[in-house]
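For the sake of transparency, this paper describes our internal protein records without simplification. An entry from our holdings is shown next, in its original layout:
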Amino acid sequence: MGQIMAYEQKKEPHPELVARTGEFAMLIYSVGLSFILVLLLLNFDFLLVCIVAGTILPYFAVRDQRLMGDRADVDERAEISRPRVTVREWRINATRKGRALQLPMVPFLLRNIWTGALVFFSLLMFSTFFISTVFQVRLSLTTPNVYGVIL
C-alpha cells in the first residue's frame, strides 16, 4: 500500500498513514467479504449448490481399492509393496492383451489442488506489475468472482 501511495503522490507518505490506510483496507475487505458470505449462505440456490457439491465431490476423490492397504498387511513392507505389485500385474495383463497400460486417474489429489493454488497465486503476483494506483487495487478487488458476486 505504501509503495502505491508513494507512486501516486510522487513522494514518500508518512509510515503511520500507510499503516492506517492498509489496516482500514483490510478491515473493509474482511467486513465486506463476511457480509457477502452471509448473503450467499442465506441464498437458497447457493446453499443447494453447496449441498450438491458436498455430495458429489467425494466420489471424484475415491481411490482404487486394489491399491489401498489390506488388513492382512501386518508389516509395513507388505503395505508399501502392495501398489507396486498390483501395478506390475496390471502391466503384465495389459501386455498380454496387447493394450497400453491405463492407470486409474484421481483428479482431486492434494498435489493437484496445491498445484492449482500455486498457479493461481503466481497469476495474482504477476498481476502486481500492472497495478500502479489505488483505484486499480480497488478495481481488482471488486471484480466479479466465479459466482458473479462482487467482492
